[in-house]
Amino acid sequence: MKIISVVGARPNFMKIAPIAEAISEQNRIGKGEIKHVIVHTGQHYDEKMSELFFTDLGIPKPDLNLGVGSGSQAAQTADIMKRFDPVLKEQKPDYVLVVGDVNSRLHAPWLRQRLASR
């Protein structure tokens, strides 16, 4: 099974920490193999707003960073959608988990449509 977790900002990092830990524990005790791919949108990108949270919360470093950076809500959402589409095609996940209430979450309706059309 492959799960992609999409995170982009501090609230997402805190929410994904226990999920990443639970997946690691499931894999450690041999209850099935779950490939967990963490995709960082890049909305929060400096050390204090991003890297520090991964280190302090013990979250594995993101497998991919979309590098969206700063911008308006519309620009960030559009960039996430454009940059995440190739990730979906390449990774072919069974599930995509989008946590939070920030711009990385706004593309969820589009994401549902993309996954349903596979």
Description:
Strands 3-2-1-4 form a four-stranded parallel beta sheet, covered by helices on one side. Helix 1 runs parallel beside helix 2. With 118 residues, it is of the alpha/beta class. The chain has four helices and four strands, in the order βαβαβαβα. The mean pLDDT is 81. It is globular, with a radius of gyration of 14 Å. The chain has a single domain (2-116), classed as 3-Layer(aba) Sandwich (Rossmann fold).
Strand and helix order: EHEHEHEH
What's the number of extended β-strand segments?
Answer: 4
Distance between the termini: 16 Å
Low-confidence stretches: none
CATH-defined superfamily? Glycogen Phosphorylase B
CATH architecture: 3-Layer(aba) Sandwich
CATH C-level category:
Alpha Beta
Number of contiguous helices: 4
- In this structure, how is the largest beta sheet organized? 4 strands, parallel
Helix content: 40-55%
* Average pLDDT figure: 81
